[in-house]
TrEMBL record:
Gene3D superfamilies: LON domain-like. This is Uncharacterized protein, similar to the N-terminal domain of Lon protease. The lineage of its organism: Bacteria, Pseudomonadati, Spirochaetota, Spirochaetia, Spirochaetales. It comes from the Bacteria. GO terms for biological process: proteolysis. Keywords: Hydrolase, Protease. Residues 2-189 form the Lon N-terminal domain. It comes from Salinispira pacifica.
Amino acid sequence: MKKIIPIFPLGVVLLPGMQLPLHIFEERYRLMVSHCLKQDEPFGIVYYDGSSFKSTGCSGKITNVLKEYEDGRKDIIIQGSDRFTLEEVDDSGEYLTAEVKYFSDCSTSASSRELERMKTEAVEAVIKLASLNNRELDRKYLMSLNPVDFSFLISASDMMNLEDKQENLETSSTANRLQSIITTAKRVIMRSEAHHQLLKILGDNSDIRHIFN
């Protein structure tokens, strides 16, 4: 399905289901947000890396206006909804708009059983990683999520860097997204375990950050 929506390039990756707070201060984006609020319409966020923006993004619906300032600025919360690819960008108006084509995950060769197996492996990995950082996750809640929703929830976490988040946004394979989470979690676990082991050897007061940079 194709549609024309406002576009907001940002240095973040929005994923479906993700809550994102935004401080709207530029005039063109104030106008964009006002339009979206009046029309009850979403706008699209595409990742801007400082030189160009990606061709795949995610629409966001304004779920809350936290504060309105006298000068027109706003603090808002948006929730990620549907993924899209940019078809044609129009910069002739007060703010960017684009014709976008929405897409979802496609059916894959991975069976439902295989996706559940991968989700379970990913759940165990992220729970272990959280415990290494003295955090506790709700295993029952994570296991109750379907593989697609779970994959987007974890992809939006701080465990994933911006490039990984963008790749997981772009892929139309749930299995690929779950594998990305498993691979990343295991890599970070190994790094964290090595860090803790070195602290035991060298002492808690040793600054060993340079070893991991």
